[in-house]
């Protein structure tokens, strides 16, 4: 039998290091047609035959819209410092511009106040992919005007909630929205054009920079940043063809976002590769995108291995793979963090998502998810190692608090440290959640009980 992972890391995390759990609105809230919420592109996409593996949708999801108080109690019981969640834009502004929906704003106000009452820091993401369908009908992120609507939305959220937020992230994973949403069509809105995808990526970055500027002008006291999905990209072999392919992939995944955000330019090799598919960039856009940030959020799940000959078979690595067929590769997280610190003038870094989908079984009220616990322990250690080597790490958040709607994979893939029985909406802490709670108690003891662990 394998040993359970230790509840104390071999690394010592600073007292102000932020531990958290993360979710997003569309994946957990449900209540899709309640209290004046507008339609989002994911509501529409879910209705396309074949778009979602199990033909499911977000109509009910984890029913978090009604069970938010119970869910906040669960979060507090884990002993984390922070909760990362997103606002559903169509819930608060059904058309994506113009009129606001008071009932939607009230929901997030209750949520934020509920977090503060439990001693938890609210980390709010403005855009976790659920664009109002009404804006998509006008062209969505491919249209420059969507950036301006996003800025107005950001200001509205700041005016209503900003005084109580610890952090605001503009976008979650712009690469995913641009490429999976507009180039491969696997995600909403399901388009298939590389030129559109690249224009979308530019408008997302532009709206990020413009929103940051507007939020600062509004006097925001929350830390402001963006969340990127990044990975170290490695060639499958040391052949020149694989090395070139990996360099280009690194350009499209990492440098396409990091270079404009931190250096005010798009990477020349990627621009050359794109040719006529490169985005239209207006004067002043790059300066706007490079607005200084208070933090950078990184979502890390696995490395990317690139072969010029075609897709690389993850099973040849010999490493375990998750239920998403993603290789478990924790050392890639240390490598990525060191690289960002070396190559860019990064602000404090948070791992804003990390976790694994594994096949869980709820038996006699328990979920023995040793593979997920091992995954989390190894990645937390990888963060500790980056910290030890001088990377300015500020926090780590588990994806996800709850099993939830895993986009095109539907509900079959479970990322939660809390099991959700979708028939009853009953929540059960998995062994990984109990491990995290014990681990955080150990951390709290090391830092002199700075924050009492709720529920324990
Ligand atoms: O569930 C998603 C999340 O919405 C964004 N980052 C990756 C997660 C797992 O696929």
Keywords:
TIM Barrel; alpha/beta; disordered C terminus; 12 strands; 456 residues; eight-stranded parallel β-barrel
Number of distinct helices = 15
Low-confidence segments? 452-456
Radius of gyration, in Å, reads 21 Å
Overall spatial form: globular
Explain what the structure shows.
- With 456 residues, the protein is an alpha/beta fold.
- Helices cover 40% and strands 13% of the residues.
- The strands form three sheets. An eight-stranded parallel barrel has the order 1-2-3-4-5-7-9-10, surrounded by six helices. Strands 6-8 form a two-stranded parallel sheet.
- It has a single domain (10-441), classed as Alpha-Beta Barrel (TIM Barrel).
- The model is unreliable at 452-456 (pLDDT under 50).
- Helix 3 (64-78) runs parallel beside helix 5 (102-117).
- It has helices at residues 25-28, 41-46, 64-78, 89-92, 102-117, 133-136, 145-161, 174-182, 194-217, 240-263, 268-274, 285-289, 331-343, 370-388, 431-446, and strands at residues 18-22, 82-86, 121-127, 167-172, 223-229, 233-235, 295-299, 304-306, 349-353, 393-399, 418-421, 426-429.
- It is globular and about 55 Å long.
- It is built from 15 helices and twelve strands.
- It binds 5-hydroxymethyl-3,4-dihydroxypiperidine.
- 5-hydroxymethyl-3,4-dihydroxypiperidine binds next to loops.
Blueprint of the fold:
Blueprint: E1 18-22, H1 25-28, H2 41-46, H3 64-78, E2 82-86, H4 89-92, H5 102-117, E3 121-127, H6 133-136, H7 145-161, E4 167-172, H8 174-182, H9 194-217, E5 223-229, E6 233-235, H10 240-263, H11 268-274, H12 285-289, E7 295-299, E8 304-306, H13 331-343, E9 349-353, H14 370-388, E10 393-399, E11 418-421, E12 426-429, H15 431-446
Parallel strand pairs: 1-2, 1-10, 2-3, 3-4, 4-5, 5-7, 6-8, 7-9, 9-10
Antiparallel strand pairs: 11-12
Bound molecules: 5-hydroxymethyl-3,4-dihydroxypiperidine.
Residues 24, 27, 173, 299, 353, 399, 406, 415 line the site of 5-hydroxymethyl-3,4-dihydroxypiperidine (IFM).
């Amino acid at each position: 039998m394998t040993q359970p992972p230790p509840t104390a890391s071999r690394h010592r995390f600073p007292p102000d290091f932020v531990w958290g759990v993360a979710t997003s609105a569309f994946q957990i809230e449900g209540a899709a047609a309640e209290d004046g919420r507008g339609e989002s592109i994911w509501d529409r996409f879910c209705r396309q035959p074949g778009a979602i593996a199990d033909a499911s949708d977000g109509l009910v999801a984890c029913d978090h819209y009604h069970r938010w108080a119970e869910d906040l109690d669960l979060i507090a019981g884990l002993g984390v410092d922070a909760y990362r969640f997103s606002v559903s834009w169509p819930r608060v502004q059904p058309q994506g511009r113009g009129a606001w929906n008071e009932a939607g704003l009230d929901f997030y106000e209750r949520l934020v106040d509920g977090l503060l009452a439990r001693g938890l820091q609210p980390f709010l993401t403005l855009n976790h992919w659920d664009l109002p369908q009404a804006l998509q009908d006008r062209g969505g992120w491919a249209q420059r005007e969507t950036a301006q609507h996003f800025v107005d939305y950001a200001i509205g959220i700041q005016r209503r909630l900003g005084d109580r937020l610890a952090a605001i992230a503009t976008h979650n994973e712009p690469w995913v929205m641009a490429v999976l949403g507009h180039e491969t069509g696997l995600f909403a809105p399901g388009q298939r054009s590389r030129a559109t995808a690249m224009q979308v990526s530019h408008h997302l970055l532009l709206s990020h920079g413009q929103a940051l500027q507007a939020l600062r002008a509004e006097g925001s006291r929350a830390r402001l940043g963006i969340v990127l999905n990044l990975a170290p990209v490695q060639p499958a072999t040391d052949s020149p063809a694989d090395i070139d392919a990996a360099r280009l992939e690194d350009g499209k995944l990492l440098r396409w976002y990091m270079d404009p955000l931190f250096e005010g330019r798009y990477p020349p090799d990627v621009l050359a590769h794109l040719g006529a598919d490169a985005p239209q960039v207006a004067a002043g856009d790059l300066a706007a995108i490079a607005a200084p940030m208070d933090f950078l959020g990184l979502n890390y799940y696995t490395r990317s291995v690139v072969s010029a000959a075609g897709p690389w078979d993850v099973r040849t690595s010999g490493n375990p793979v998750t239920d998403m067929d993603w290789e478990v590769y924790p050392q890639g997280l240390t490598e990525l963090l060191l690289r960002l610190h070396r190559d860019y003038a990064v602000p404090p870094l948070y791992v804003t998502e990390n976790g694994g989908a594994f096949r869980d079984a709820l038996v006699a009220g328990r979920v023995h998810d040793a593979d997920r616990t091992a995954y989390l322990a190894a990645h937390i250690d990888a963060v500790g190692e980056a910290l030890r080597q001088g990377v300015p790490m500020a926090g780590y958040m588990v994806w996800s608090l709850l099993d939830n709607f895993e986009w095109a994979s539907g509900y079959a893939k479970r990322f939660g440290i809390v099991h959700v029985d979708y028939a009853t909406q009953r929540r059960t802490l998995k062994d990984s959640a109990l491990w995290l709670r014990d681990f955080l108690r150990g951390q709290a003891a090391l830092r002199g009980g700075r924050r009492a662990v709720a529920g324990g």
